[in-house]
Amino acid sequence: MNSQTLKENGFTDFIPLKNLPFTSLPYNKSSIIVIADPTVTNKPASGILYIGKSKRPVKRIFGGYIAGYGGKTAKKIHDLLFNENFIEKVAISWMLSDDLKTAQKNLLEDFKKTHGEYPKWNTKKVQTKPKPASKIVKAPPTRKPSKRSAKPA
Fold first, then answer.
1. Domain 5-150 carries which CATH code?
2. N or C: which end of the chain has fewer CB within 10 A?
3. What ranges do the domains of the chain cover?
4. Contact 71, 54 (CB under 8 A)
5. What CA–CA distances, in Å, run from 103 to 57, 73, 88, 147?
6. Hey, which residues does 50 pair with through a beta bridge?
């Protein structure tokens, strides 16, 4: 399975994510979403980076992946898109589905059979560039004079 064979399974043509028009997505229709890097489709590795599901694809893609709102997965994909500059490379496709869990599970298992592992972004931990840590300088604690030393002799 790769990004070219998905069309045979009912997926739309891939659209670059950075140019994705809001009106092209199915609104409030359960969909399976695939994010791929189309530059690797002719190589032995698959261009598919992520296979996901959503009951509201517009909200998931624009609110989660692009704006960074939502759960761990949406934030992880947002970080990869913008911190790793994948927004310039990736494209997105989708397929309507009445049974999201089963459809996603089947696609992931087919992918694993073909490639020996799940897509890179479907794994639990994805290596991203660490965000630069901001240094917080703490002031040394101030000591109040004790009552004994404060009394005059």
1. 3.40.1440
2. C
3. 5-150
4. no
5. 15, 18, 28, 73
6. 35
Q: Model pTM?
A: 0.76
Give dist(CA 39, CA 33) in Å, integer. Answer: 18
User: Locate tokens 């589905």: which residue?
Assistant: 97
53 and 104 Cβ atoms separated by less than 8 Å: yes
Question: What is the token pair recorded at 74?
Answer: 């949406």
CA 39 distance to own-chain centroid: 19
* C-alpha triplet 12, 16, 21: angle, nearest 5°: 80
Asked if residues 73 and 45 have their Cβ atoms less than 8 Å apart, the reply is: no
Question: Both tokens of residue 41?
Answer: 């489709």
Give tens-digit pLDDT for 125-150: 555 555 555 556 566 666 666 666 55
The sheet that has 48-54: what strands, in order across it? 15-16, 91-96, 31-36, 48-54
Torsion of CA 7, 105, 63, 47, to 10 degrees: -50
Contact (CB, 8 A) for 84 and 129: yes
Q: Does residue 53 sit in helix, strand or coil?
A: strand
Residue 107 has φ and ψ, to the nearest 5°, of -65, -40
